[in-house]
Amino acid sequence: MSVRDDPFWEFERSGWERASAFYEEAWSGATRAFCEPLLDAAGASSGTRLLDVACGPGYVAGAALDRGAQVVGLDVAEGMVALARERFPAAEFLIGDAHALPFPDDAVDAVTMSFGIHHVTDPELVFREAARVLRSGATYAFTSWAAAPDHVPIAIAEKVVTPLAVATDLPPGPDFFRFSDESECNEVLPRSGFAESSVSFETVRASWRIPNAAHLFDAQLDGGVRVGALLRAQSPERQERIRDAMLEETRRYETTDGSCVLPIAAHVISARVR
Predict the structure, then answer these.
(1) Rounded to whole angstroms, how far apart are CA atoms 223 and 16?
(2) By three-state DSSP, how is residue 230 classified?
(3) For residue 123, with 0-12 CB atoms within 10 Å meaning exposed, 13-18 middle and 19 or more buried, which class applies?
(4) Torsion of CA 92, 117, 126, 88, to 10 degrees
(5) pLDDT (tens digit, 9 = 90+) per residue, 61-76?
(6) DSSP secondary-structure letter at 176?
């Protein structure tokens, strides 16, 4: 069965298509904090032929351009590709699927994936595709969000949304935190074509300043896929209860000017092709 026949694949594709209109305002401050560590892990520098998979609005691609890399970005959501093309015209952006990269073998010097691993149907196939298009000895690097309590937005969602939301019928997908586990990365990546001794797992911490306490709820509602779909499925009364509870938790990180500074963390994982 093709991954495109899996309801989760279409759920994520259509979800990010919808979220593309809200993504930059919702999440850019969080995801951009990890662009440079991701590119460092991939060894991106001047002249590197880099493929950024699940490129979203192109933040990693733009940072790679600043390093002098030759960049192609790829995303399954047309809206995301349109945003990336508008913001970073010096890079090439394609609509495509991480499970079936439209490139020949040994085509690039580095592959990156910024938090895309959370949203694919078959992570092992995604890893094998990355290994296939990389030249021998080249590096694949991806990021995976850390779990609570290290990543506060996830900790707040688990504390508030999980107990208050009424369960709804969403397509089941892979474990969101599967590759936030170092031992899982050490086991799966070598099976996917990467050298066992080359696997690196680093935790990077940052701070995400949001304009106000309501921003986190709004980001999840409008710019999220799994949590966003769950929130939008709630009754107006229950959604308001969740919003109030999330605001209460987020205000714990409020500063004197009304903004909130949330501790965030992600794992940067990399490995070289055998």
Answers:
(1) 8
(2) helix
(3) buried
(4) 0
(5) 999 999 999 999 999 9
(6) T
List, in order of start, the domains of the chain with CATH numbers: 3-272 (3.40.50.150)
Residue 58, phi-psi category: left (phi > 0), alpha (psi -120 to 50), beta (remainder):
left
Q: How far apart are CA 32 and CA 220, in angstroms?
A: 17
Q: Which helix (H) or strand (E) holds 52?
A: strand 49-53
pTM over 0.85: yes
Span 118-128, pLDDT tens digits: 999 999 999 99
| Number of residues that make up the chain | 274
Name the H helices within 150-206.
152-164, 182-191
Identity of residue 119: H
Q: Region of 205 please: left (phi>0), alpha (psi -120 to 50) or beta.
A: beta
Q: Which residue has the tokens 């938790």?
A: 249
Which amino acid is present at 69? A
DSSP assigned state of 253: G
Beta bridge partners of 272: 139
CA nearest 266: which of 108, 120, 154?
154
Q: What is the DSSP letter of 254?
A: B
As given in the structure block, the two tokens for residue 86 are 């508008």
Burial class (CB in 10 A: 0-12, 13-18, 19+), 197: exposed
Which tokens in the block code for residue 222? Answer: 């409008």
